[in-house]
Amino acid sequence: MSTRTLIRGGLVVTAADETHADVLVEDGRIAALAAHGSQDWSADRVIDASHKYVIPGGVDAHTHMQMPFGGTYASDTFETGTRAAAWGGTTTIVDFAIQTKGRALREGLDAWHAKADGQCAIDYGFHMILSDVNDGSLKEMDLLVEEGISSFKLFTAYPGVFYSDDGQILRAMQQASGNGGLIMTHAENGIAIDVLVQQALARGESDPRYHGEVRKALLEAEATHRVIKLAQVAGAPVYVVHVSAREAVAELARARDEGLPVFGETCPQYLFLSTDNLAEPDFEGAKYVCSTPLRPKEHQEILWRGLRTNDLQVVSTDHCPFCFVDQKELGRGDFSKIPNGMPGVENRMDLLHQGVVDGHITRRRWIEIACASPARMFGLYGQKGTIAPGADADIVIYDPNAEQTLSAETHHMNVDYSPYEGKRITGRVETVLSRGELVIEQRQFTGRAGHGAYVPRGISQYVG
Fold this sequence. Notes:
Blueprint: E1 4-13, E2 18-26, E3 29-35, E4 45-48, E5 53-56, E6 58-63, E7 68-69, E8 72-73, H1 78-87, E9 90-98, H2 105-116, E10 123-129, H3 135-146, E11 151-155, H4 166-179, E12 182-186, H5 190-202, H6 209-214, H7 217-234, E13 238-240, H8 246-257, E14 262-266, H9 268-272, H10 275-278, H11 298-309, E15 314-315, H12 348-357, H13 363-377, E16 395-405, E17 424-434, E18 437-441, E19 444-445
Helix pairs in contact: 3-4, 4-7, 7-8
Protein backbone atom coordinates (compact mmCIF):
# COMPACT_ATOMS: atom_id res chain seq x y z
CA MET A 1 0.00 0.00 0.00
CA SER A 2 1.45 3.33 -1.05
CA THR A 3 0.95 6.06 1.55
CA ARG A 4 1.36 9.76 0.93
CA THR A 5 1.77 12.47 3.56
CA LEU A 6 1.68 16.18 2.81
CA ILE A 7 3.34 18.60 5.21
CA ARG A 8 1.89 21.98 4.37
CA GLY A 9 2.68 25.59 5.13
CA GLY A 10 5.88 25.38 7.18
CA LEU A 11 9.27 27.03 6.91
CA VAL A 12 11.59 24.28 5.67
CA VAL A 13 15.00 24.80 7.27
CA THR A 14 18.02 22.80 6.11
CA ALA A 15 21.75 23.47 6.44
CA ALA A 16 21.64 25.12 3.02
CA ASP A 17 18.27 26.89 2.74
CA GLU A 18 15.24 28.34 4.46
CA THR A 19 12.16 28.26 2.27
CA HIS A 20 8.39 28.29 2.72
CA ALA A 21 7.46 25.02 1.07
CA ASP A 22 5.12 22.06 1.11
CA VAL A 23 6.78 18.65 1.46
CA LEU A 24 5.35 15.49 -0.10
CA VAL A 25 6.28 12.18 1.48
CA GLU A 26 5.66 8.90 -0.29
CA ASP A 27 6.58 5.37 0.80
CA GLY A 28 8.94 6.52 3.52
CA ARG A 29 10.91 8.95 1.37
CA ILE A 30 10.67 12.61 0.49
CA ALA A 31 9.07 12.70 -2.94
CA ALA A 32 9.00 16.43 -3.70
CA LEU A 33 9.09 19.99 -2.36
CA ALA A 34 7.19 22.89 -3.88
CA ALA A 35 6.32 26.46 -3.05
CA HIS A 36 3.45 26.56 -0.60
CA GLY A 37 0.13 25.98 -2.38
CA SER A 38 1.69 25.75 -5.85
CA GLN A 39 0.91 22.04 -6.26
CA ASP A 40 -2.45 20.35 -5.88
CA TRP A 41 -1.05 17.22 -4.28
CA SER A 42 -3.40 14.58 -2.92
CA ALA A 43 -2.35 12.74 0.23
CA ASP A 44 -3.64 10.21 2.74
CA ARG A 45 -2.52 12.46 5.58
CA VAL A 46 -2.06 16.22 5.69
CA ILE A 47 -0.01 17.86 8.44
CA ASP A 48 -0.46 21.59 8.94
CA ALA A 49 2.93 23.12 9.71
CA SER A 50 1.83 26.77 9.57
CA HIS A 51 3.98 29.03 11.79
CA LYS A 52 6.31 26.04 12.44
CA TYR A 53 9.68 24.90 11.19
CA VAL A 54 9.96 21.76 9.08
CA ILE A 55 13.44 20.41 9.76
CA PRO A 56 15.37 17.18 9.15
CA GLY A 57 15.36 14.66 11.97
CA GLY A 58 18.40 15.04 14.18
CA VAL A 59 21.42 12.76 13.83
CA ASP A 60 23.09 12.08 17.18
CA ALA A 61 26.40 10.47 16.29
CA HIS A 62 27.55 9.73 19.84
CA THR A 63 25.37 7.67 22.19
CA HIS A 64 26.00 4.81 24.62
CA MET A 65 22.82 2.81 25.21
CA GLN A 66 23.13 -0.07 27.72
CA MET A 67 26.86 0.54 27.96
CA PRO A 68 28.77 -1.30 30.70
CA PHE A 69 30.91 1.12 32.72
CA GLY A 70 32.42 1.10 36.18
CA GLY A 71 30.59 -1.99 37.38
CA THR A 72 27.16 -0.87 36.18
CA TYR A 73 25.28 -0.14 32.94
CA ALA A 74 24.01 3.01 31.29
CA SER A 75 20.38 3.24 32.41
CA ASP A 76 18.83 3.73 28.97
CA THR A 77 18.23 0.64 26.87
CA PHE A 78 18.04 0.86 23.10
CA GLU A 79 14.25 0.89 23.52
CA THR A 80 14.00 3.65 26.14
CA GLY A 81 16.88 5.68 24.73
CA THR A 82 15.64 5.76 21.14
CA ARG A 83 12.12 6.58 22.29
CA ALA A 84 13.51 9.55 24.24
CA ALA A 85 15.55 10.55 21.20
CA ALA A 86 12.38 10.62 19.10
CA TRP A 87 10.68 12.86 21.69
CA GLY A 88 13.57 15.26 21.24
CA GLY A 89 13.46 15.32 17.45
CA THR A 90 16.37 12.94 16.84
CA THR A 91 15.61 10.26 14.26
CA THR A 92 19.01 8.55 13.90
CA ILE A 93 21.62 7.61 16.47
CA VAL A 94 25.07 6.14 15.96
CA ASP A 95 25.97 4.10 19.03
CA PHE A 96 29.25 2.45 19.99
CA ALA A 97 29.81 -1.29 19.82
CA ILE A 98 32.71 -2.33 22.06
CA GLN A 99 35.48 -4.80 21.37
CA THR A 100 36.40 -6.76 24.50
CA LYS A 101 40.16 -7.03 25.04
CA GLY A 102 41.43 -10.30 23.62
CA ARG A 103 38.30 -10.80 21.51
CA ALA A 104 37.43 -10.09 17.89
CA LEU A 105 35.75 -6.88 16.72
CA ARG A 106 33.03 -9.03 15.17
CA GLU A 107 32.13 -10.52 18.53
CA GLY A 108 31.62 -7.06 20.03
CA LEU A 109 29.62 -5.89 17.04
CA ASP A 110 27.38 -8.96 17.17
CA ALA A 111 26.71 -8.33 20.87
CA TRP A 112 25.56 -4.76 20.15
CA HIS A 113 23.40 -5.86 17.23
CA ALA A 114 21.73 -8.32 19.60
CA LYS A 115 21.01 -5.52 22.12
CA ALA A 116 19.51 -3.19 19.51
CA ASP A 117 17.74 -5.52 17.09
CA GLY A 118 13.97 -5.12 17.29
CA GLN A 119 14.22 -2.60 20.15
CA CYS A 120 14.74 0.78 18.50
CA ALA A 121 12.05 3.39 17.83
CA ILE A 122 14.30 5.23 15.34
CA ASP A 123 17.07 4.26 12.93
CA TYR A 124 20.54 3.46 14.23
CA GLY A 125 24.07 2.67 13.17
CA PHE A 126 27.26 1.68 14.98
CA HIS A 127 30.80 2.88 15.44
CA MET A 128 33.34 0.35 16.74
CA ILE A 129 35.43 0.93 19.87
CA LEU A 130 38.87 -0.64 19.44
CA SER A 131 40.07 -1.87 22.84
CA ASP A 132 42.79 -4.19 21.49
CA VAL A 133 44.77 -3.10 18.44
CA ASN A 134 46.61 -6.07 16.91
CA ASP A 135 47.12 -7.69 13.52
CA GLY A 136 43.75 -9.43 13.71
CA SER A 137 41.69 -6.42 14.72
CA LEU A 138 43.41 -4.25 12.11
CA LYS A 139 42.42 -6.70 9.36
CA GLU A 140 38.88 -6.80 10.71
CA MET A 141 38.63 -3.03 10.32
CA ASP A 142 38.73 -3.45 6.53
CA LEU A 143 35.84 -5.92 6.61
CA LEU A 144 33.76 -3.70 8.87
CA VAL A 145 34.21 -0.66 6.62
CA GLU A 146 32.93 -2.72 3.69
CA GLU A 147 29.74 -3.56 5.57
CA GLY A 148 28.93 -0.11 6.86
CA ILE A 149 30.84 0.29 10.14
CA SER A 150 33.11 3.04 8.85
CA SER A 151 34.35 4.71 12.06
CA PHE A 152 36.51 3.45 14.89
CA LYS A 153 37.05 4.99 18.32
CA LEU A 154 40.28 4.84 20.30
CA PHE A 155 41.03 6.24 23.75
CA THR A 156 44.05 8.03 25.14
CA ALA A 157 42.15 7.85 28.46
CA TYR A 158 41.07 5.08 30.86
CA PRO A 159 44.26 3.01 31.31
CA GLY A 160 43.44 -0.64 31.89
CA VAL A 161 40.01 -0.29 30.29
CA PHE A 162 39.95 1.31 26.83
CA TYR A 163 43.38 2.94 26.70
CA SER A 164 45.52 2.58 23.57
CA ASP A 165 49.13 3.73 23.42
CA ASP A 166 50.50 5.96 20.68
CA GLY A 167 51.79 3.01 18.66
CA GLN A 168 48.39 1.32 18.67
CA ILE A 169 46.64 4.54 17.71
CA LEU A 170 49.13 5.11 14.89
CA ARG A 171 48.61 1.58 13.53
CA ALA A 172 44.83 2.02 13.57
CA MET A 173 45.16 5.37 11.80
CA GLN A 174 47.43 3.83 9.16
CA GLN A 175 44.85 1.11 8.58
CA ALA A 176 42.08 3.70 8.29
CA SER A 177 44.10 5.73 5.80
CA GLY A 178 43.94 2.72 3.48
CA ASN A 179 40.36 1.56 3.99
CA GLY A 180 38.52 4.91 4.15
CA GLY A 181 37.60 4.58 7.81
CA LEU A 182 37.49 7.52 10.21
CA ILE A 183 39.36 7.31 13.51
CA MET A 184 37.56 8.96 16.42
CA THR A 185 39.52 9.72 19.58
CA HIS A 186 38.69 10.40 23.20
CA ALA A 187 41.60 12.78 23.77
CA GLU A 188 42.73 13.11 27.39
CA ASN A 189 46.09 12.05 28.84
CA GLY A 190 44.78 9.18 30.93
CA ILE A 191 48.18 8.14 32.28
CA ALA A 192 48.83 11.60 33.75
CA ILE A 193 45.22 11.96 34.93
CA ASP A 194 45.48 8.72 36.93
CA VAL A 195 48.49 10.16 38.79
CA LEU A 196 46.52 13.32 39.64
CA VAL A 197 43.50 11.23 40.74
CA GLN A 198 45.60 9.24 43.20
CA GLN A 199 47.28 12.39 44.53
CA ALA A 200 43.91 14.12 45.04
CA LEU A 201 42.43 11.13 46.88
CA ALA A 202 45.55 10.89 49.06
CA ARG A 203 44.93 14.52 50.08
CA GLY A 204 41.36 13.64 51.01
CA GLU A 205 39.89 15.46 48.00
CA SER A 206 37.06 13.06 47.21
CA ASP A 207 34.08 15.23 46.24
CA PRO A 208 32.71 15.28 42.65
CA ARG A 209 34.25 18.67 41.90
CA TYR A 210 37.72 17.12 42.00
CA HIS A 211 36.77 15.01 38.98
CA GLY A 212 36.95 18.22 36.95
CA GLU A 213 40.06 19.49 38.69
CA VAL A 214 42.22 16.41 37.98
CA ARG A 215 41.09 16.04 34.35
CA LYS A 216 42.89 19.22 33.41
CA ALA A 217 42.16 21.18 30.24
CA LEU A 218 45.88 21.11 29.44
CA LEU A 219 45.79 17.30 29.41
CA GLU A 220 42.86 17.38 26.99
CA ALA A 221 44.81 19.82 24.80
CA GLU A 222 47.98 17.71 24.99
CA ALA A 223 46.18 14.55 23.90
CA THR A 224 44.32 16.44 21.16
CA HIS A 225 47.65 17.76 19.84
CA ARG A 226 49.13 14.26 20.00
CA VAL A 227 46.37 12.48 18.08
CA ILE A 228 46.44 15.22 15.43
CA LYS A 229 50.19 14.66 14.94
CA LEU A 230 49.74 10.87 14.85
CA ALA A 231 47.01 11.29 12.22
CA GLN A 232 49.32 13.54 10.23
CA VAL A 233 52.06 10.87 10.32
CA ALA A 234 49.54 8.22 9.25
CA GLY A 235 48.06 10.38 6.49
CA ALA A 236 44.61 9.86 8.00
CA PRO A 237 41.72 12.05 9.10
CA VAL A 238 40.87 12.24 12.79
CA TYR A 239 37.66 13.20 14.63
CA VAL A 240 38.01 14.30 18.26
CA VAL A 241 34.93 13.55 20.36
CA HIS A 242 33.38 15.64 23.17
CA VAL A 243 35.74 18.62 22.98
CA SER A 244 35.24 20.62 26.17
CA ALA A 245 38.18 23.02 26.59
CA ARG A 246 39.29 26.16 24.79
CA GLU A 247 42.87 24.82 24.74
CA ALA A 248 41.72 21.77 22.79
CA VAL A 249 39.69 23.94 20.39
CA ALA A 250 42.89 25.90 19.73
CA GLU A 251 44.69 22.69 18.73
CA LEU A 252 41.89 21.79 16.31
CA ALA A 253 41.76 25.28 14.85
CA ARG A 254 45.52 25.34 14.30
CA ALA A 255 45.43 22.00 12.48
CA ARG A 256 42.48 23.01 10.34
CA ASP A 257 44.22 26.27 9.45
CA GLU A 258 47.03 24.08 8.12
CA GLY A 259 44.50 22.31 5.91
CA LEU A 260 44.55 19.02 7.80
CA PRO A 261 41.49 16.71 7.80
CA VAL A 262 40.89 17.23 11.52
CA PHE A 263 37.37 17.41 12.94
CA GLY A 264 35.84 18.16 16.33
CA GLU A 265 32.61 17.51 18.18
CA THR A 266 31.26 19.15 21.28
CA CYS A 267 28.17 18.40 23.38
CA PRO A 268 25.35 20.47 24.91
CA GLN A 269 26.64 19.93 28.45
CA TYR A 270 29.80 21.87 27.63
CA LEU A 271 27.78 24.69 26.07
CA PHE A 272 25.33 25.11 28.97
CA LEU A 273 26.88 23.62 32.14
CA SER A 274 30.13 24.25 34.00
CA THR A 275 32.32 23.41 36.97
CA ASP A 276 29.78 25.34 39.06
CA ASN A 277 27.50 22.32 38.61
CA LEU A 278 30.24 19.85 39.57
CA ALA A 279 30.69 21.84 42.79
CA GLU A 280 27.02 21.60 43.85
CA PRO A 281 26.79 20.54 47.51
CA ASP A 282 25.56 17.27 49.08
CA PHE A 283 27.09 15.11 46.31
CA GLU A 284 24.70 16.67 43.77
CA GLY A 285 27.77 17.42 41.66
CA ALA A 286 27.97 13.70 40.85
CA LYS A 287 25.09 14.20 38.41
CA TYR A 288 27.46 16.20 36.22
CA VAL A 289 30.43 13.82 36.20
CA CYS A 290 31.36 12.98 32.64
CA SER A 291 34.63 12.77 30.71
CA THR A 292 35.87 15.03 29.30
CA PRO A 293 34.66 17.01 32.32
CA LEU A 294 32.68 20.21 32.53
CA ARG A 295 34.89 23.29 32.39
CA PRO A 296 34.69 26.79 33.92
CA LYS A 297 32.02 28.97 32.29
CA GLU A 298 34.47 31.01 30.22
CA HIS A 299 35.08 27.98 27.98
CA GLN A 300 31.45 28.05 26.78
CA GLU A 301 31.83 31.09 24.54
CA ILE A 302 34.94 29.59 22.92
CA LEU A 303 32.96 26.44 22.08
CA TRP A 304 30.09 28.48 20.61
CA ARG A 305 32.61 30.44 18.59
CA GLY A 306 34.17 27.20 17.36
CA LEU A 307 30.75 26.11 16.16
CA ARG A 308 30.26 29.40 14.33
CA THR A 309 33.69 29.29 12.67
CA ASN A 310 33.46 25.57 11.83
CA ASP A 311 36.47 24.67 13.93
CA LEU A 312 33.89 22.39 15.59
CA GLN A 313 31.55 20.72 13.09
CA VAL A 314 29.19 18.52 15.11
CA VAL A 315 27.19 18.58 18.32
CA SER A 316 26.43 15.12 19.70
CA THR A 317 25.36 14.18 23.21
CA ASP A 318 27.67 11.42 24.44
CA HIS A 319 24.39 10.24 26.00
CA CYS A 320 25.45 7.78 28.70
CA PRO A 321 23.03 8.14 31.62
CA PHE A 322 23.43 6.74 35.10
CA CYS A 323 20.80 7.23 37.78
CA PHE A 324 21.78 9.36 40.76
CA VAL A 325 20.37 6.81 43.19
CA ASP A 326 22.37 3.56 43.28
CA GLN A 327 24.60 4.40 40.27
CA LYS A 328 26.19 7.84 40.67
CA GLU A 329 26.17 7.11 44.41
CA LEU A 330 28.76 4.37 43.87
CA GLY A 331 31.28 7.22 44.03
CA ARG A 332 30.31 8.67 47.42
CA GLY A 333 33.61 9.23 49.20
CA ASP A 334 35.67 8.63 46.02
CA PHE A 335 34.95 10.74 42.94
CA SER A 336 36.93 8.31 40.76
CA LYS A 337 34.23 5.67 41.31
CA ILE A 338 31.36 7.87 40.02
CA PRO A 339 30.18 6.39 36.70
CA ASN A 340 31.18 8.84 33.97
CA GLY A 341 28.27 9.98 31.84
CA MET A 342 25.23 12.20 31.51
CA PRO A 343 21.81 12.01 29.86
CA GLY A 344 21.09 14.27 26.90
CA VAL A 345 19.74 12.50 23.82
CA GLU A 346 16.29 14.05 24.34
CA ASN A 347 17.53 17.61 24.95
CA ARG A 348 20.07 18.23 22.19
CA MET A 349 17.86 19.68 19.45
CA ASP A 350 16.01 21.93 21.92
CA LEU A 351 19.16 23.20 23.63
CA LEU A 352 20.77 24.01 20.30
CA HIS A 353 17.62 25.86 19.26
CA GLN A 354 18.03 27.86 22.46
CA GLY A 355 21.46 28.67 21.08
CA VAL A 356 19.66 30.17 18.07
CA VAL A 357 17.31 32.13 20.36
CA ASP A 358 20.29 33.40 22.37
CA GLY A 359 22.10 34.53 19.23
CA HIS A 360 25.01 32.07 19.34
CA ILE A 361 24.22 30.38 16.01
CA THR A 362 21.84 30.80 13.06
CA ARG A 363 18.91 28.52 12.26
CA ARG A 364 20.75 26.96 9.34
CA ARG A 365 23.85 26.38 11.47
CA TRP A 366 21.60 24.68 14.06
CA ILE A 367 20.51 22.19 11.41
CA GLU A 368 24.05 21.86 10.09
CA ILE A 369 25.66 20.90 13.41
CA ALA A 370 22.74 18.72 14.59
CA CYS A 371 21.65 17.01 11.36
CA ALA A 372 23.65 17.59 8.17
CA SER A 373 27.25 17.60 9.41
CA PRO A 374 26.95 14.46 11.55
CA ALA A 375 25.26 12.73 8.59
CA ARG A 376 28.08 13.81 6.27
CA MET A 377 30.79 13.01 8.82
CA PHE A 378 29.60 9.45 9.21
CA GLY A 379 28.51 8.51 5.69
CA LEU A 380 24.75 9.00 5.99
CA TYR A 381 24.11 12.26 4.14
CA GLY A 382 21.58 12.18 1.33
CA GLN A 383 19.67 9.49 3.20
CA LYS A 384 19.76 11.36 6.52
CA GLY A 385 20.35 14.94 7.61
CA THR A 386 18.43 16.88 4.97
CA ILE A 387 15.01 17.46 3.40
CA ALA A 388 15.42 16.73 -0.28
CA PRO A 389 13.82 14.41 -2.85
CA GLY A 390 15.03 10.85 -2.31
CA ALA A 391 16.06 11.33 1.31
CA ASP A 392 14.45 9.30 4.06
CA ALA A 393 11.36 11.09 5.34
CA ASP A 394 12.87 11.78 8.77
CA ILE A 395 11.13 15.07 9.45
CA VAL A 396 10.40 17.15 12.54
CA ILE A 397 7.65 19.75 12.85
CA TYR A 398 9.19 22.19 15.31
CA ASP A 399 7.35 24.96 17.16
CA PRO A 400 9.92 27.75 17.61
CA ASN A 401 7.67 29.75 19.93
CA ALA A 402 6.56 27.09 22.41
CA GLU A 403 8.11 27.44 25.84
CA GLN A 404 9.07 24.52 28.04
CA THR A 405 10.86 23.81 31.30
CA LEU A 406 13.32 20.92 31.25
CA SER A 407 12.76 18.47 34.10
CA ALA A 408 13.22 14.85 35.09
CA GLU A 409 9.48 14.81 35.80
CA THR A 410 8.63 15.31 32.14
CA HIS A 411 11.56 13.84 30.19
CA HIS A 412 11.43 10.37 28.69
CA MET A 413 15.01 9.23 29.30
CA ASN A 414 15.29 6.36 31.78
CA VAL A 415 17.19 8.35 34.38
CA ASP A 416 16.12 9.89 37.68
CA TYR A 417 17.46 13.42 37.18
CA SER A 418 17.89 16.10 34.54
CA PRO A 419 21.17 18.01 34.32
CA TYR A 420 19.05 20.93 33.09
CA GLU A 421 16.40 20.75 35.84
CA GLY A 422 14.25 23.88 35.82
CA LYS A 423 15.88 25.44 32.74
CA ARG A 424 13.34 27.38 30.67
CA ILE A 425 13.86 27.24 26.94
CA THR A 426 12.02 28.38 23.83
CA GLY A 427 11.21 25.87 21.10
CA ARG A 428 9.74 22.37 21.19
CA VAL A 429 9.27 19.34 19.00
CA GLU A 430 5.63 18.87 18.01
CA THR A 431 5.54 16.01 15.48
CA VAL A 432 8.20 13.57 14.26
CA LEU A 433 8.25 11.29 11.24
CA SER A 434 10.75 8.48 10.89
CA ARG A 435 10.88 7.13 7.33
CA GLY A 436 7.41 8.60 6.84
CA GLU A 437 5.87 6.98 9.92
CA LEU A 438 4.59 9.17 12.72
CA VAL A 439 6.54 8.41 15.88
CA ILE A 440 5.54 11.59 17.73
CA GLU A 441 2.19 13.14 16.76
CA GLN A 442 1.15 16.40 18.41
CA ARG A 443 3.26 15.60 21.48
CA GLN A 444 2.06 12.00 21.75
CA PHE A 445 4.33 8.99 21.22
CA THR A 446 2.89 6.88 18.40
CA GLY A 447 6.01 4.90 17.53
CA ARG A 448 7.04 1.42 18.51
CA ALA A 449 10.09 -0.62 19.40
CA GLY A 450 11.32 -2.32 16.26
CA HIS A 451 10.35 0.41 13.80
CA GLY A 452 13.94 1.67 13.83
CA ALA A 453 16.16 -0.01 11.26
CA TYR A 454 19.89 -0.63 11.29
CA VAL A 455 21.55 1.68 8.77
CA PRO A 456 24.90 0.69 7.23
CA ARG A 457 27.05 3.76 6.63
CA GLY A 458 29.35 4.81 3.82
CA ILE A 459 32.71 6.41 4.42
CA SER A 460 32.88 9.96 5.70
CA GLN A 461 31.72 12.41 3.05
CA TYR A 462 34.25 14.95 4.34
CA VAL A 463 37.22 12.76 3.53
CA GLY A 464 36.03 10.12 1.06
